[in-house]
Amino acid sequence: MPHQAEGGCKIAKSKKHLIIAITLILASSSVVYAKLGNMVFDDKAGSLKKAGMAPAVFPHDRHEDIYKCNDCHPKLFKDKRGANDINMKKNMTGQFCGAPDCHNSPRAFPLYECKKCHIEKKAPLTKSN
Ligand code: HEC
Ligand code: HEC
């Protein structure tokens, strides 16, 4: 009899561990990824200033709502802040923001609408700025 009681206790214990494990998995999947907000691109601060243009503000979250991560990463943009050497010549020749289905196509406002991207900082900014 004592032997049986011990076995039952072991099962109860492993069930408890299973429940804890499942809870942790569910919790982590909702905590690990939060949308990235507005990113302010001013790596080319010198050229921007010379041209009298504000930094480019990129609403990452709005793009996440419309596209899949792998529509952009890694084929259009490396997923690391500052890792892409973006400039207007490249945008105008089909790279980065000006990739074929993006701001060079009817899907999005065109590149000549400069001030839709080059805007003074929007609030609230996220830590990714
Ligand atoms: C779809 C968004 C977008 C539009 C529209 C846009 N730009 Fe840009 N532009 C960028 C991004 C992103 C950068 C890179 C900024 C950085 O990292 O410093 C940039 C960089 C620049 C730079 C600095 C680098 C360089 O190429 O000399 C200038 C100047 C500039 N843009 C001017 C313009 C002008 C003028 C227009 C309108 C004819 C325009 N941009 C339209 C996104 C845009
Ligand atoms: C429309 C294109 C686009 C889509 C879609 C997109 N991203 Fe990005 N992402 C970017 C750009 C542009 C940057 C900034 C790269 C830079 O600074 O040069 C970026 C940056 C990042 C970074 C780096 C952040 C940092 O602070 O270093 C991560 C991580 C990332 N994206 C993950 C994702 C994930 C996950 C998804 C899908 C849920 C996604 N991205 C969808 C364009 C996109």
Question: Which terms summarize this structure?
Answer:
binds heme C, 129 residues, Cytochrome C3, 2 domains, 6% strand
Distance between the termini: 65 Å
CATH topology of the largest domain: Cytochrome C3
What spatial order of strands do you see in the largest sheet? Answer: 1-2
Instruction: Return residue spans where pLDDT drops below 50 for at least 5 consecutive residues.
Output: none
CATH C-level of the largest domain: Alpha Beta
Mean pLDDT across residues:
85
Architecture per CATH nomenclature, i.e. the level-2 architecture of the largest domain: Alpha-Beta Complex
The largest β sheet comes out as:
2 strands, antiparallel
> What spatial form do the alpha-carbon principal axes imply?
elongated
H and E string:
HEHEHHHH
* Secondary-structure content class: mainly alpha
Give the domain tally: 2
Spell out which ligands are present. heme C
| Overall strand count | 2
Percent helix among the residues? 40-55%
Q: What's the gyration radius in Å?
A: 24 Å
Strand content: 5-15%
Treating each run of at least 4 consecutive H or I residues as one helix, how many helices? 6
* CATH superfamily descriptor of the largest domain: Cytochrome C3
